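$ ./design --mode recover --in tokens.txt
reading tokens...
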């Protein structure tokens, strides 16, 4: 992916989600970052004791959801024993438990749980993905790994024709999304901070989405009370209002 030209340079007319399966296939077979390739494979082989009888995904993790999404959620990266195990982002870990329970309460998911890729979870007017597609050691991608993955996120959000708002989970995701949309003098990250679409400059000439910031639903934040259920729900209610959607039934 290194050196790949930005998708924003050309409007190819595919902004209705029709290119998402092709993008997913490209993401899954990516091996551009040697450190991440080695780590995701090691985790998939060694496994965690609780999952020793499971076959780990052990590959890059694409986004998933509703191609007609008005809202996109962008996280940091797959969890080593979560999405790197199950093959679906925010699935099989505590962060996903919090995220999808909130999305269910606010009308963006058909169920509150996400335990496996075939558990029946469906998103309603929403898409979920991550800034980096492979599980990184210590959950810390390098700047080079982040930048190699950026074209995937650009292309993915480009194909969501109805996108009106992005929920950035954590400072890392916010920085990536803000850089992608070329936001000058962007507001400092904080839970509930809203960056209106007027701040953004979508490089392809199309209307850029607004951004709503949220603390990441990591155990570090949820166990300490830094992020509560009501705080996370409030972010999705705000995002729904910005997207022109009814948060009780998008």
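writing sequence...
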């Amino acid at each position: 992916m290194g050196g790949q030209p930005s998708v924003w340079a050309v409007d190819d007319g595919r902004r209705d989600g029709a290119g998402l399966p092709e993008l997913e296939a490209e993401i899954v077979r990516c091996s551009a970052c040697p450190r991440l390739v080695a780590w995701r494979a090691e985790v998939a082989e060694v496994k965690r004791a609780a999952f020793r009888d499971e076959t780990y995904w052990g590959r890059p993790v694409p986004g998933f959801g509703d191609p007609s999404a008005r809202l996109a959620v962008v996280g940091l990266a797959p969890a080593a024993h979560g999405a790197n195990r199950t093959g679906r982002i925010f699935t099989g870990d505590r962060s996903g438990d919090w995220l999808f329970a909130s999305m269910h309460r606010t009308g963006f998911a058909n169920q509150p749980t996400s335990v496996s890729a075939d558990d029946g979870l469906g998103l309603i007017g929403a898409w979920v993905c991550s800034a980096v597609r492979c599980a990184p050691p210590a959950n810390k991608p390098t700047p080079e790994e982040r930048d190699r993955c950026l074209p995937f996120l650009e292309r993915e959000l480009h194909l969501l024709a109805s996108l009106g708002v992005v929920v950035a989970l954590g400072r890392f995701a916010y920085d990536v999304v803000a850089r992608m949309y070329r936001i000058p003098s962007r507001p400092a990250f904080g839970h509930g901070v809203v960056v209106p679409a007027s701040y953004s400059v979508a490089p392809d000439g199309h209307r850029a989405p607004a951004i709503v910031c949220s603390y990441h639903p990591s155990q570090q934040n949820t166990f300490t009370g830094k992020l509560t259920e009501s705080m996370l729900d409030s972010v999705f209610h705000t995002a729904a209002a910005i997207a022109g959607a009814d948060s009780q039934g998008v």
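exit 0
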